[in-house]
Amino acid sequence: MKKFVQFALLPLMVTASLAAVAAPAAKPEKLIQWRQSAYRVAEWNVARLKAALEGQYDKEEAVAAANALEGIAGSGIESLFVPGTEQGKGWHETSAKPEAFKDTKRFAELSLSFSKEAAELAKLVPAADQSAVKAQFGKVTRTCKTCHDAFKGKD
Fold first, then answer.
1. Cβ atoms of 77 and 15 closer than 8 Å
2. 152: β partners
3. Residue 96 pairs with which residues in a beta bridge?
4. Under DSSP, is residue 155 helix (H, G, I), strand (E, B) or coil?
5. 19 pLDDT higher than 60
6. Alpha-carbon gap, residue 125 to 82, rounded angstroms
């Protein structure tokens, strides 16, 4: 199992490393745009999952949204929070709190938790019943809320 976890995390580590190398070369406003875009797409997929779970379960929609969310969560977007992007405008003013740049260890832990829970959701959706998917979806959204409470200001 440990070997599987190490193997499963390898693509995430490589992506994050490459993003960290490429990120400083971009202008701060571009980095802010990229992270704002990624989180908006994540938000859209959370809304799609919520809608798929309400009323009559739409498994096909849930699978598509969960897979997209897993990709975003594991893409290394935390590497877009580099010095020089604490303030500024991407598509709009950044809503990242200064703590995201100061408490990088906690920020990385929460980002990894989001990635882990989203990956588990994507794995569960195709095979699990609606109640199991709802429970895991709750774990994913709690990771979002925990991070937002600590590191995101008002939009």
1. no
2. 96
3. 152
4. coil
5. no
6. 34
Strand partners, 93: 89
**CATH topology for the 2-151 domain:** Four Helix Bundle (Hemerythrin (Met), subunit A) (1.20.120)
Which residues are within 8 A (CB) of 19 and not within 5 positions of it... i.e. 6 or more apart?
A: 75, 76, 77, 79, 80
* Residue found by looking up tokens 């070997």 in the block: 3
Residue 11's pLDDT band, with cuts at 50, 70 and 90, is very low
Residues 6+ positions from 70 with CB-CB distance below 8 Å: 115, 118, 119, 121, 122
42 C-beta neighbours (distance < 10 Å), count: 21
Q: How far is CA 53 from CA 65, 141, 146, in A?
A: 11, 13, 22
Give residue 120's pLDDT: 97
Domain boundaries, the chain: 2-151
pLDDT at 23: 53
> How many whole angstroms separate alpha carbon 78 and alpha carbon 73?
9
Amino acid at residue number 13: M
Q: What pLDDT digit, counting tens, does each position of 21-80 carry? A: 445 589 999 999 999 999 999 999 999 999 999 988 899 999 999 999 999 999 999 999
